[in-house]
Amino acid sequence: MAMRDPAPSPLDVLEATFHLLTAGPDPLALDGATVGCGLPARPIALDELRSILLHPSTSFAARDAALAELVGRAQADGGAWTVGLAGVLLPGLRRVAGHLAREFPGDTADLDAEVLTGFLEALGKLHLHPGRRRLAAHLLWGAFNRGKRLRRMELEACVRRLPLEATSAVPPPPAGHPDILLARAVRHGVLAAWEAELIGATRLEGEDLLRLAAEGGYKPDTLRHWRRAAERRLAAWLLTGSVPVPPVSGEHPPSAGRNRAVRRGPASASDRAPAEPERDGRAARTARRSAVARLQHRQPRRPSRSSVPLSSPPESTGDQAGGS
Questions:
Q1: Of 51, 226, 266, 311, which has the fewest beta carbons less than 10 angstroms from its beta carbon?
Q2: CA distance linking residue 116 with residue 94, whole number of Å
Q3: Are 74 and 91 in contact (CB under 8 A)?
Q4: Model pTM?
Q5: What percent of the chain lies above the pLDDT cut of 70?
Q6: Region 221-226: what's the mean pLDDT?
Q7: 3-state DSSP assignment of residue 58
């Protein structure tokens, strides 16, 4: 059984009709000398006029003047001039319809027809006066509002069509929930448990990082550095699936001066990890650097000539042994 081709949309029909009006030896044209504003001083077919008006080099004054001439003829004569005006603005009409179709649950042909209806309504309500500007925006805005109204009605109708009787169904898996994602990262060894707690508390629950640092005895820059490193591992895992080798683990962060882990709530006595106090301040850092420097420059001592080899015990030791 042969499949029938789908019916063309109203915008496609408009494009075909506009092509017929602008083709042949006597196309629908506008006199450029009458319009002025830099347009060619000759009859310009409307399909060529559309290309000229869409070109970036055309001034806004020339666009408004040409559209004002087309609007005046469409309102006075209708018919072919209305089709000609709609054909000149067809790229904008397609852009409006495409934007509305992203969330439209019905047939997009109905949406295209509603957009054209809104365009015609805006054309009928438009009052021309000398110096009127932004004519294209006014006409396209009317088309957008009419299409948006239809989209809202269709969405409301879809909601009303949902069954109201009580039925049992499997709930959709909440795979995209941030807490579940953090738990998966901990399970796969991408994040430590305390890193997931830190990201969840500060990024999802709105906890103040400065307050957490003060409660845990950490410097704020240290928590920021740990969180940034954990988020980079998490992003790399989500993008490439790469897991750190070896996997990251640990219930608590490195020790701090107050021996408290960064948690969302108060930690119990069993959750506290033993840690050594951390020395802070300029004097402590200077002392650590000095100790490291001494260890790096320390040379092993050479045995003196008077020292006794380790293989033979001292005589005093032998005397004591003999005396005992």
A1: 311
A2: 10
A3: no
A4: 0.48
A5: 70
A6: 91
A7: coil
Mean pLDDT of 69-83: 91
Task: Enumerate the domain spans of the chain.
Answer: 10-160, 178-271
Position 205 scores a pLDDT of 83
With 50 as the cut, is the pLDDT of residue 168 above it?
yes
Q: What single string gives the DSSP state of each residue in 133-198?
A: --HHHHHHHHHHHHHHHHHHHHHHHHHHTS--S----PPPP-TT-HHHHHHHHHHTTSS-HHHHHH
pLDDT digits (tens, 9 = 90+) for 29-56: 988 888 888 888 899 999 999 999 989 8
Whether the CA torsion 250, 254, 258, 264 is positive or negative: it is negative
Angle at which helices 209-216 and 220-240 cross, to 10°: 120
Instruction: For residue 30, list its beta bridge partners.
Output: 44
58-62, 177-181, 230-234: least confidently modelled range: 177-181
Task: Determine whether 297 is exposed, middle or buried from the number of CB atoms within 10 Å of its CB (0-12, 13-18, 19+).
Answer: exposed
In 3D space, the residue among 146, 149, 154 whose CA is nearest the CA of residue 120 turns out to be: 146
Preceding peptide of 246 cis, ω within 30°: yes
d(Cα 151, Cα 308) in Å, to the nearest integer?
100
- Are 216 and 256 in contact by the 8 Å Cβ rule? The answer is yes
CA–CA distance from 66 to each of 32, 62, 84, 130, 142 (Å)? 8, 6, 12, 13, 20
Cα–Cα nearest to 186, from 259, 282, 250, 96:
250
Asked if residues 126 and 71 have their Cβ atoms less than 8 Å apart, the reply is: yes
Quote the CA–CA distance of 29 and 22 in Å, as a whole number: 7
